[in-house]
Description:
5 strands, 8 helices, 10% strand, three-stranded parallel beta sheet, mainly alpha, two-stranded parallel sheet, globular
Amino acid sequence: MKLVIAGGWxxxxxxxxxxxxxxxxxxxxxxxxxxxxxxxxxSFDDKEKEKLIATARVVLYTPSNEHFGIVPLEAMAxxxxxxxxxxxxxxxxxxxxxxxxxxxxxxxxxxxxxxxLAQDLKKAESMGIEGRKRVEGSFSFSEFREKLHKAxxxxxxxxxxxxxxxxxxxxxxxxxxxxxxxxxx
Length: 185
């Protein structure tokens, strides 16, 4: 098994440069991993991202307090289970123990979850299937359309002001715009 660490990269951003160097130092000098067992992909296009997600055994989503985060949904759309931090957006998208795992920020828990899925391919496959169902049932365009219709209808029924209804409609559209993504391959 190979660990692929992929993420956005901009050599002009000092934080990107120093963080990448720190990860390489940890992997190859402190933990003594073989160069062949870890691959760093600093930048990639959408097609490469799709391939990475679709071929992964599991996606590790590490940002803390991310507002929503589309990556877990993209992974689940590809039937790839997700291990993510137990805060922010992943709490809304991942069903712990069913579509992936939500973990506190400690290496022991994360490594246990990764090993669990690496050693139990049936569990990983089942979580992937459940993740796909979750995306289709809660985050698809048709689900978005239904939620938007209910929100607008409810706003219209409770307030007669056309201007207020239009304002609410726009707010709902902008709040859900992150869900309009071609997630399903």
